[in-house]
Design brief:
- The chain contains three helices and four strands.
- Helix 1 runs antiparallel to helix 3.
- Strands 2-3-1-4 form a four-stranded antiparallel beta sheet.
- Helix content is about 35%, strand content about 35%.
- By secondary structure, it is of the alpha+beta class.
- The chain has one domain: 2-Layer Sandwich (Alpha-Beta Plaits), CATH 3.30.70.
- The longest helix is centred in the N-terminal third of the chain and has 13 residues.
Length: about 100
Amino acid sequence: MVVHIVMFQFKEENKKANMIQAKQMLENLMGAVPTLRSIDVGLNFSAESRAMDLSIITTFENKEGLNAYAIHPEHLKVVDFIKTVVEYSKVVDYERV
């Protein structure tokens, strides 16, 4: 099993609305991307300065499934939107044994 975690820091302009829209778009990928086994999308409530605004935890059967997700047209639509509203993101990919 491959786990793909991404954390996003959103731009201040329309931040809350953009976070909610991104969350909905990401959750809609379940069922739309065949290799996506699970997705958990969370909006941050921590007030810590090191906190990120939104995170996703996704799982795939293998690296090939993650690679297929990365280029899937429905995922790319979400990526296109997120690129316009996010300052930066961080990612971690690992194999669960």
